[in-house]
Specification:
Elements: H1 2-18, E1 23-26, H2 29-36, E2 44-47, E3 52-56, E4 74-77, H3 85-95, E5 100-103, H4 110-119, E6 124-127, H5 131-136, H6 141-162, H7 171-184, E7 189-190, E8 195-198, E9 219-224, E10 226-228, E11 231-232, E12 235-240, H8 247-265, H9 273-286, E13 298-300, E14 307-311, E15 324-327, E16 330-333, E17 337-340, E18 343-346, E19 356-357
Parallel strand pairs: 1-5, 3-4, 5-6
Antiparallel strand pairs: 1-2, 2-3, 7-10, 8-9, 9-12, 10-11, 13-14, 15-18, 16-17, 18-19
Helix pairs in contact: 3-4, 6-7, 8-9
């Protein structure tokens, strides 16, 4: 992968040079990992015209959850663990003769930005913006391979939970068990805080597990994902507990399933972000559920669980091939519960079979 990371750094260096900056400082951890192969805690990456340097408060501790830095990179350890690496990087850039330095202003506090200016007063600080985030949108096949394994681990963990007895157990207990199973199957850890929602809590997009116990007849909504070599996926499923679903549960489930299928089928290179969102949102709005819908139907995934693009009504832009996204509409009826169905997919052209589904757990309305 070292060659891949070098190519990524080269692309960024060319873009910075075209914008008038001979050097760039990358501080956002996911961006550091993307360009350097690893992002030890607190590390920043300085891209210079002649040499790239990873500045670390402490020595990298092998692969671990933060990845392994590219062996071709120079690694500088800061003299004191409490020294700010961005300030040290500004001084290093100035000492190397750089006149300007592009920085990720959206990741830096005002205080850190000012400290850099004081450390290297002759160095012009420019805004790198979201250049690296935009570079990360389209994934290579090795990145997609990591996402595919993360999805397989997630499916395994969820499948095992569905085979166990659920009635009487709390949302919090089930969430902890799912996260343990993810690690047991080889994940770095959960991709985000696992959500388990039962009964009146089900169908909510950001529900944090509580001490509510699973009861017969409940909807059970689960949203989880594994992180594998830093790459994160997402799955969401809804089930009925202990008995055949009621008529209203079947109708609501069928509606959300149809909306999610419409969103999945709209994924194609060249499709507008907002059109994918509209495809999934329209059936729910037509059925009278527009008011309580989430602001977006889906989003990109990768080294972060929520990346660009956003599949939202006001999102600008069009999908490219090899962009992994989630599609996850949901409806929550206050006091009753609801349904969420999420998948992680990779945008592929029709000639290659259309969107590639990574999360395979059944979307049939099962009574567990």
């Amino acid at each position: 992968m070292s060659e891949v990371h070098a190519v990524r750094r080269g692309l960024l260096r060319d873009r910075c040079a075209a914008a008038g900056s001979a050097a760039a400082l990358v501080s956002r951890p996911a961006n550091v990992r993307y360009l350097a192969g690893g992002a030890p805690p607190g590390a920043v990456l300085l891209l210079g015209p002649d040499e790239d340097v990873l500045l670390c408060p402490r020595a990298p501790a092998g692969e671990g959850a933060h990845g392994r830095p590219d062996e071709a990179l120079r690694i500088d350890l800061l003299p004191a663990p409490d020294e700010d690496p961005v300030v040290a990087a500004a001084g290093l850039a100035a000492a190397s003769g750089a006149e300007s330095l592009a920085v990720e202003e959206h990741d830096l506090t005002v205080a850190r930005h000012r400290a850099m200016g004081k450390s290297a007063p002759r160095l012009k600080l420019a805004d790198l913006g979201f250049t690296v985030e935009q570079q990360r949108i389209v994934k290579d096949e090795e990145e997609i391979g990591c996402l595919r394994i993360a999805a397989e681990i997630t499916d395994q963990a969820l499948g095992e939970l569905l085979e166990s007895i659920l009635v009487g157990r709390t949302e919090r207990h089930l969430a902890l068990e799912l996260e343990r199973r993810l690690v047991d199957h080889g994940a770095d850890g959960p991709a985000f805080v696992t959500s388990v929602a039962t009964g009146p809590n089900s169908g909510q997009g950001r529900h944090r597990p509580s001490d509510r116990r699973v009861e017969e007849g409940d909807f059970l909504s689960v949203r989880l994902g594994a992180s594998y070599h830093g790459y994160r996926c997402e799955i969401g499923r809804t089930f009925v507990i202990g008995t055949a679903p009621a008529e209203w549960q079947i109708e609501l489930y069928d509606l959300v399933f149809a909306a999610q299928r419409a969103g999945r089928e709209a994924l194609a290179p060249g499709a507008a972000y907002r059109d994918v969102d509209r495809a999934a949102r329209h059936p729910l709005e037509s059925a009278g559920h527009g008011e309580g819908l989430q602001p977006s139907t889906g989003h990109g995934v990768g080294l972060e669980i929520e990346e660009d693009p956003q599949l939202a009504p006001t999102a600008m832009g069009k999908l490219d091939a090899c962009v992994p996204v989630t599609v996850g509409p949901g409806v929550h009826l206050p006091g009753r519960g609801g349904v969420r169905i999420d998948d992680t997919l990779v945008v592929r052209p029709e000639a290659d079979g259309g969107p590639e589904l990574l999360t395979m757990t059944t979307k049939e309305l099962l009574a567990l």
